[in-house]
# Entry
Amino acid sequence: MKSLAELAAIREKMKDKIVLREGGDASIRIVVGMATCGIAAGARPVLNAFVEGVEKEGLGGKAIVSQTGCIGICQYEPVVEVMEPGKEKVTYVKMTPEKAEKVLKEHIKGGKVVQEYTISDTKNA
# Structure
């Protein structure tokens, strides 16, 4: 990269591939913990799976994907929180890209929490 114009071109090219937004009309927020512990545990591929899945499933108007720092439960990383207005927050733990795909289809698209991936499931505690 040698100029601001080149940096701007890279930014524009990547903007179409990322569904990370601040605000918007979407009612469901998918938040992926991206602190050092999360990244070390594999959060980056999980984040990418959610971003790509929201786009692929046509859920851009319904859900937004964002990242945050430490969620505070490092032993359960990668951690993903799903927040919907009027509903209790759902915390998914020990996530993988494959689990992210199931959460997108069953919870985000279908409205049914994938209980076996949540922190309240006794296998994950």
Observations:
- Confidence is low (pLDDT under 50) at residues 19-23.
- Strands lie at 28-33, 63-68, 80-83, 90-92.
